[in-house]
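Field notebook, page 228. I keep forgetting to write these up properly, so this time I am using the form the group agreed on. The chain and the ligand, adenosine-5'-diphosphate, are recorded exactly as supplied. Prediction of the bound pose follows.
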Amino acid sequence: MIRFEHVTKRYPGGTTAVRDLTFEVAAGELVTLVGPSGCGKTTTMKMVNRLIEPSEGRILVDGEDVMAGDPVELRRRIGYVIQSTGLFPHRTVLENTATVPHLLGWPRARRRERARELLDLVGLDPCVYGDRYPDQLSGGQRQRVGVARALAADPPVLLMDEPFGAVDPVVRERLQSEFLKLQAAVRKTVLFVTHDIEEAVLLGDRIAVFGDGVIEQFAPPTEVLGAP
Ligand code: ADP
Ligand code: ADP
């Protein structure tokens, strides 16, 4: 579903963030990208939805070169969740969740119905939280809205960049286990960036262990842990 072929990214100024990356993520697979800060995880992820352009090589999503088509069209097929959720402060939880359906021109009743369904799915009662504004939620609840929003138009691919990084450890554990259940139900093709090896092992079907611009190991959790 996602395929990197000899992808290199050099930033203006000379930093080579990633070098000759080749890997594949299967449909419905959740791959965690783990490694210390500055080793190229975010750069790798942002090239998938074309927020960053590769210097060399190519990236295919569902067989199509991401650089070939319309980036807006590409991003409609790719949900994106980041640490600071980027929720619109003057939009309610329901409206925030329905952002992409709104952009796609779905009728109001259908968007609201879909938003309610998604809020239920991420464990937020839409009757209680739907009409609140983001600043009336806890950090963990805002992250749930971020996930609901990313899933609203049912994209096949989900990119998550340290989505649970800004909440306290107890809340993070709940979000992680609920996200696992959610993923079992919706089966998206997921790239999930984290610097926390425990999180990478808990969530990943496979783990891409990054070190300074290259993937040093790409294996299921048991192998990554069991390496002698
Ligand atoms: P990670 O997500 O693993 O922390 P990044 O992909 O953010 O790593 O960064 C990889 C390398 O690229 C780092 O050395 C970082 O300083 C550099 N880098 C990231 N973004 C830019 C940019 N916009 N311009 C120049 N260098 C950048
Ligand atoms: P109406 O009841 O007239 O259909 P809408 O719900 O379409 O009203 O929208 C009212 C205003 O709010 C419009 O300016 C619309 O662009 C904006 N809006 C509504 N829903 C969203 C959303 N989910 N995301 C962003 N803007 C929205």
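OBSERVATIONS:
- The radius of gyration is 18 Å.
- DSSP finds ten helices and ten strands in the chain.
FOLLOW-UP: compare against the apo run.
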